[in-house]
Amino acid sequence: MSGGPAGSGGGAGAAGSGGGAGSDPDAVGSGAGSEASGGEPGAASGARSSDGDRIDVAGLGFETRAIHGGTGADPSTGAVNTPVYLSSTFRQEAVGVHRGYEYARSGNPSRASLEANLAVLEGAEWGLAFASGLAAEDAVLRLLAPGDHLVLPNDAYGGTYRLATRVHGPAGLLIDAVDLVDPAGLEAVMRPMTKMVWVETPTNPLLRVIDIEAVAAVAHRHGALLVVDNTFATPWIQLPLTMGADIVVHSTTKYLGGHSDVVGGFALTRSPELADRLRFLQNSTGAVPGPLDCYLVQRGLKSLAVRMERHCVNAAIIVEMLKGHPAVGNVLYPSLPGHPGGAVARRQMRAFGGMVSFTLAAGEPAAVEVCARTRIFTLAESLGAVESLIEHPGRMTHASVAGSTNEVPADLVRLSVGLETAEDLVADLRQALDGLG
Ligand code: P1T
Description:
Layout: H1 62-68, H2 109-122, E1 126-130, H3 133-141, E2 149-153, H4 158-168, E3 174-178, H5 183-189, E4 194-200, H6 212-221, E5 225-229, H7 234-237, E6 247-251, E7 265-269, H8 272-285, H9 291-302, H10 304-323, E8 328-332, H11 342-348, E9 355-360, H12 364-373, E10 378-379, E11 389-391, E12 412-416, H13 422-434
Parallel strand pairs: 2-3, 2-4, 4-5, 5-6, 10-11
Antiparallel strand pairs: 1-7, 6-7, 8-9, 9-12, 11-12
Helix pairs in contact: 1-2, 2-9, 3-4, 10-13, 12-13
Bound molecules: ligand P1T.
């Protein structure tokens, strides 16, 4: 039941699980929803489904939902992990009579299992997996029509800005990129044709915090949808759909996968209409992840909570060291006194995350140099995995936005703080900073 409702057991999981709505690309919301709201009728949380394959996770903790949510042991074999179903097509007993899957672009059991699992974690009814974060974003932007107006943040992943302005802009989308930290700034650019407001929080790479509820209120007053990119925070830290977001997007390449071994994306919603349209786009444009990619992301979900906890602890330790180092200019992290989004962060986030940015007192040359001087922090794009990464956003992840509203400071360095021993990470950064020319 690819993308099926996932409240407790969308049944994803496997060939043989029956149903069939999942394989019909135009049928999101039809059928498969019957089990969405509570698992077995009358069963207590934690109860197993009658076939014993699934646990009803309603009301259970994040870690339990991450491991058991929306999915269960494989009904055909009892395998505790949904297998990697390497089949591009599925046998039909008679024309139109099948076990829920027809053709793997439209739906396959490995993807269905992941989709139901992540939907449970985000508090969504529907989750749709894509081949990359940008593929998911592209599908969401295709909900708009030429002449519609989109509001972007002026601080966001460079690829998001590039996709909107250089792919969808020429196709007729009208776009403004503004500072969303102050919702008054948003109010000022809203127009009758504004159909979507896009938020990233914390932002990439400046780690600004946007008040999701406040932005949702403005967007909805003007009849626009609110999309939140939850890649940096993950559902362990914040749940945008509970704060008024209509759609959440993810690059699952990052914390959700968590091991730098897969590229993937996601779109999630509670709206059956939006799910219908996104499912149609997922199948029609075909930017779907393969079954092994789905397996890897789902494996990442199982340990998301413990990984995020340690990412946040290690990041806080690094922040303390950076604050006291003479080579460092400003440290950007939502927990710091004076961070403009601090109060909002304390309200809408469980913790402050594993990303840390800072400027160098000696400017761009020092920023570039420090990136080449670390040994444990690997100089590479991407983020959110077990190994620590360092990068220069101006020349790397955000090079494509040079000269635009979304240009990033040249003296900025971004860290993705990983799960190595904190003292080793501190020592590595310290020697890199101490030795600057
Ligand atoms: O790389 P992809 O899976 O397509 O995801 C794009 C994307 C979307 N949203 C955010 C917030 C992101 O950070 C990204 C990808 N970002 C990087 C590769 C990076 O190093 O910042």
